[in-house]
């Protein structure tokens, strides 16, 4: 088992990564030093079918445990499911010494974390990720739900008390889900180091990755995120670097329809756009075509495929929570590991999107 410590201005907590460590979940939770009266597991229908009953049995060795199951998919990051989780918490009589266990991927972590942040003005929660994608969302304390007009517009910063990452649970992921999570690993490499990126690019297929390789990638990616979150917990500065590819990516998710494209695939397209602008605007020296070909080989989409106008995408991006005063801040690279924020007006954004789409053959 590997252990990382995440330090922020408001909290310090451990991240445990290992094969089969869910069997020791009682000891791992107890080792954090927090005394909980009750636990409420929040999970989705897909994860529940595989791990739900087992997790209840494991945790019941020490605590009174209840379970809430929401539908699988991005659609569960909604007001309706947020209210549903709160209703169950009230019915189960959770108190301020209770803890919510987020068992699932990024959607569950965001939903359960936001419920924990707001129930009785805030109770504890613990992340138990079951997807590769969740290595990004499980660390850092961002929680929230979507609004029909935009992704993650309603939420709170609420750090977990621990992250327990059992790599054996990644074995049940589909190739689509595995690829979605790998997009965020690529992002962490692009904003951190050429060595990490080169290491990833030696992977020619996501099929058959060993648990050791997955654990190493998770550790590397979480290390990158933890170092940034430690410096800037509430995204006042460098934490925005973690949004590489996300401004356009979120617009794509919203316009395609939540669930129609995975988060990772949308971010992969968004990163292609950000790297294009970085090359043209900042002179980024990166073998972008080689990177694009590699990502395509792994199965990622590398361009916008739906017939959606540039204006609609720009309007979505202007409405993103990262926009400021009618302009959009894009995360760009001067070089791999050298990140900057650059503001674009609506017209400038339109120009770059049109140019990029034309070059990619989308127009």
How much helicity do the residues have? Answer: 40-55%
> What general outline do the C-alpha atoms trace?
globular
The total number of structural domains is 2
**The CATH fourth-level homologous superfamily of the largest domain:** Dehydroquinate synthase-like - alpha domain
Determine the structural class based on helices, strands and strand pairing.
alpha/beta
The second-level CATH architecture of the largest domain is Up-down Bundle
Pfam families: DHQ_synthase, DHQS_C
Pathway: Metabolic intermediate biosynthesis; chorismate biosynthesis; chorismate from D-erythrose 4-phosphate and phosphoenolpyruvate: step 2/7
GO molecular function, one term: 3-dehydroquinate synthase activity
Subcellular location: Cytoplasm
Task: Give an overview of the whole structure.
It is found in: Cytoplasm. Keywords: Amino-acid biosynthesis, Aromatic amino acid biosynthesis, Cobalt, Cytoplasm, Lyase, Metal-binding, NAD, Nucleotide-binding, Zinc. One of its GO terms (molecular function) is 3-dehydroquinate synthase activity. By secondary structure, this protein is α/β, with parallel strands linked by helices. It has 2 domains: 171 residues, Rossmann fold (3-Layer(aba) Sandwich); 185 residues, Dehydroquinate synthase-like - alpha domain (Dehydroquinate synthase-like, alpha domain, Up-down Bundle), CATH 1.20.1090.10. The chain is built from 13 helices and 11 strands. The chain has a 4-stranded parallel β-sheet with strand order 4-3-5-6, sandwiched between helices. Strands 1-2-9 form a 3-stranded mixed β-sheet, with helices on one face. Strands 7-8 form a two-stranded antiparallel ribbon. Helix 9 packs across helix 10. The longest helix is centred in the middle third of the chain and has 21 residues. It is globular, with a radius of gyration of 20 Å.
């Amino acid at each position: 088992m590997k252990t990382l410590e995440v330090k922020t201005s408001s909290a310090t907590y451990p991240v445990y990564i290992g094969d089969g460590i869910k069997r020791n979940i009682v000891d791992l939770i107890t080792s954090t030093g927090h005394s909980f009266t009750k636990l409420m597991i929040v999970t989705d229908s897909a994860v529940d079918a595989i791990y739900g009953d087992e997790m209840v049995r494991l945790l019941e060795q020490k605590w009174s445990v209840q379970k809430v199951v929401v539908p699988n998919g991005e659609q569960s990051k909604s007001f309706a499911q947020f209210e549903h989780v709160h209703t169950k918490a009230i019915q189960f009589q959770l108190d301020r010494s209770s803890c919510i266990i987020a068992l699932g991927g990024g959607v569950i972590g965001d939903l359960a974390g936001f419920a924990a942040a707001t129930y009785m003005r805030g109770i504890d929660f613990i992340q138990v990720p079951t997807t590769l994608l969740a290595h990004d969302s499980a660390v850092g304390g961002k929680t929230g739900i979507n609004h029909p007009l935009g992704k993650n517009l309603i939420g709170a910063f609420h750090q977990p008390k621990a992250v327990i990452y059992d790599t054996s649970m990644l074995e049940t992921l589909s190739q689509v889900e595995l690829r979605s999570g790998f997009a965020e690993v690529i992002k962490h490499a692009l904003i951190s180091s050429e060595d990490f990126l080169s290491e990833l690019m030696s992977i020619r297929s996501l099929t058959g990755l060993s648990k050791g390789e997955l654990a190493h990638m998770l550790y590397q990616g979480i290390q990158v995120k933890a170092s940034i979150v430690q410096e800037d917990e509430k995204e006042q500065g460098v934490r925005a670097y973690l949004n590489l590819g996300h401004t356009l990516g979120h617009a794509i998710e919203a316009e395609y329809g939540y669930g129609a494209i995975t988060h990772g695939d949308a971010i992969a397209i968004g990163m292609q756009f950000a790297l294009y602008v970085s090359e043209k605007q900042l002179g980024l020296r990166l073998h972008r075509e080689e990177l694009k070909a590699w990502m395509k080989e792994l199965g990622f989409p590398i361009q916008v495929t739906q017939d959606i106008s540039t204006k609609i995408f720009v309007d979505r991006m202007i409405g993103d929570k990262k926009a400021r005063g009618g302009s959009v801040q894009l995360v760009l690279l001067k070089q791999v590991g050298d990140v900057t924020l650059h503001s674009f007006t609506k017209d400038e954004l339109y120009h770059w999107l049109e140019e990029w789409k034309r070059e990619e053959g989308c127009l």
